[in-house]
Amino acid sequence: MSVIWKVDPSHSDVQFKVKHLVISTVIGNFNTFDGTIETSNEHDFSAAKISFSVDAVSIDTHVKDRDEHLRSADFFDAATYPKLTFTSSSFVKESDEAYVLKGNLTIKGHTESTVFQVTFGGSAKDAYGNLKVGFEATGKISRKAFGLKWNDVTEAGSVVVADEVKIILNLQFIKQ
């Protein structure tokens, strides 16, 4: 019998970082997301099946005009591709706290194999008796591989937006 865990969005965060003008980093979040983990028991996450989705329209970089541009066809084309999705192909335990998560990430209709380094934060019961677990997952992707190709060049020849995007997921899950 499998155990299902659902993401707790009020105690989770989906963040990305990308270089701007090669000199600074822009940090953004996706505010609406959902995910599940399916395990064989509540104590062993090795070989877990993981699925996750993010609403593209929920992108938030704290700059309204930039967010609208990111939602446009130049980037996520949120009207046509409303979700970014991830489905695991493997979740391998390397130590008590470290896992490697591999799977297929789909953005804007493009699917690429993606790898995340995952740290298990532990488990605890909340004030209501719900069992919760926490994970932090980090990875890097090429935005161009997913069709997010818009860019510009400054007068000095620097690109406006770097190709490499760092993804940081701090997620808490509730046992169902």
From TrEMBL:
Entry coiled-coil feature ranges: none
Database matches in InterPro entries: Lipid/polyisoprenoid-bd_YceI, TTHA0802/YceI-like_sf
Domain annotation Lipid/polyisoprenoid-binding YceI-like: ranges: 4-174
Name of the protein in question: YceI family protein
Organism the protein comes from: Olivibacter ginsenosidimutans
Organism taxonomic ancestry: Bacteria, Pseudomonadati, Bacteroidota, Sphingobacteriia, Sphingobacteriales
